[in-house]
Amino acid sequence: MKKFLIALAFFVTLAPAVEAKEPFDVIRQEIAYYKQSEKEIAWISMAILYAAEECKLDPLLITAVMETESAFNFKALSPVGAVGLMQLMPSTAQNIGIDPHNPLANVVGGAYYLKMQLNRFAGQSQGLVYAIAAYNAGPQAVINAGGIPAYAETRNYVVRVINNYNRLRQILAG
Length: 174
Description:
Distance between the termini: 32 Å
Shape: globular
Order of helices and strands: HHHHHHHHH
Number of strands: 0
Largest sheet: none
Strand content: under 5%
């Protein structure tokens, strides 16, 4: 586990730095890689910023999770039933009181669920990594494993989210 975290920390610092921008510009640029519709790009960008403000989260973290979860696809549906931009399971959406098929509720609900995981694992040396793993595998799986579960899907997911997040932060920082 420790070797995995060390490798993860090394891997995610390799993203190249690019010219500094505003968060909205960085988010918009990332979404535009996947989407051509200016209306969709603008809507998703604003939804991320709104959810970030509502949940007091870094909008670049929400962007990294959304990119990894759905590649900004409104109609994404996973083989196990996760729905929408933030790929919420129907049971998770029900537990937090949102309709996962409503795009704005999906984004805000996903951000809220991510914030719950960040709060749950706050104070731990790998709190962000564990929260991201919990977003994918569920918090109980992370608790039971004492860290990132040994599921290949979750480990790959964590690497992708952290890599996307660090790359976006480096773009913002310039």
